[in-house]
Write a structure and sequence with these properties.
Helices cover 39% and strands 21% of the residues. The protein is of the alpha/beta class. The protein has one domain: Peptidyl-tRNA hydrolase (Rossmann fold, 3-Layer(aba) Sandwich). A seven-stranded mixed beta sheet has the order 2-3-4-1-5-7-6, sandwiched between helices. Strand 3 and strand 4 form a beta hairpin. Helix 1 crosses helix 6, helix 2 packs across helix 4 and helix 6 runs antiparallel to helix 7.
Length: 194
């Protein structure tokens, strides 16, 4: 069984913000795989279904970004998955260009508070994550203002396409493993550009 967690903040005011791209990817996967995300448990809104023949839980933590680890810890403890293999976390990344995707099997939080909290709650950083590029913070901007800012129409279009690629990356991780996903999706953004 896989637990796929998209990071974001609950509440209408955070919809379409850079920090919520993880929620957007979960919504895209849910739509493509026909999984309803309606159940409220483990400090998240979750949906259950199958992806590539594997049972999966799609989750959007409702704890606010900085406490995402609380929800992830509860999900792992309840469903008894091996988080080093069966947990996939999707998060925004300001060090990547808009719409660029990077799959990683482990690594630091890179200053991302949601990932930092998950690492804290797991006690290690060995879990698969898909980083979604949202572009670098402009000079002089406050980081919180930037990540909680909204996308331009053009960025939104690019990020919607990136969400489709991220959903494909999730399916690749599940069916072929993270190394295959890293080979196929890491790089300039579009798999065709590899």
């Amino acid at each position: 069984m896989y637990i796929i967690v998209g990071l974001g903040n609950p509440g209408k005011e955070y919809v379409n913000t850079r920090h919520n791209i993880g929620f957007d990817v979960i919504d895209k996967i849910a739509e493509q795989e026909n999984i309803a995300i309606l159940e409220r448990k483990h400090k998240a809104v979750i949906g259950k279904g199958y992806i590539g023949g594997q049972k999966c839980i799609l989750a959007k933590p409702q704890t606010f970004m900085n406490l995402s680890g609380e929800s992830v810890r509860e999900l792992i403890d309840y469903y008894k998955v091996d988080e080093t293999v069966e947990l996939i976390v999707i998060a925004d990344d300001i060090s990547l260009a808009v719409a660029q995707i990077r799959v990683r099997k482990k690594g630091s939080s890179g200053g991302h508070n949601g990932l930092k909290n998950i690492i804290q709650h797991l006690g290690h950083d060995s879990f698969v994550r898909i980083k979604m590029g949202v572009g670098e913070k402009p000079k002089g901007w406050d980081l919180a203002d930037y990540v909680l800012g909204h996308f331009s129409a053009q960025e939104r279009k690019e990020l919607d396409e990136a969400a489709v690629r991220a959903a494909d990356a999730v399916r690749t991780i599940i069916s072929e493993g993270p190394d295959q996903a890293m080979n196929r999706f890491n790089g300039t953004g579009h798999p065709s550009a590899q």
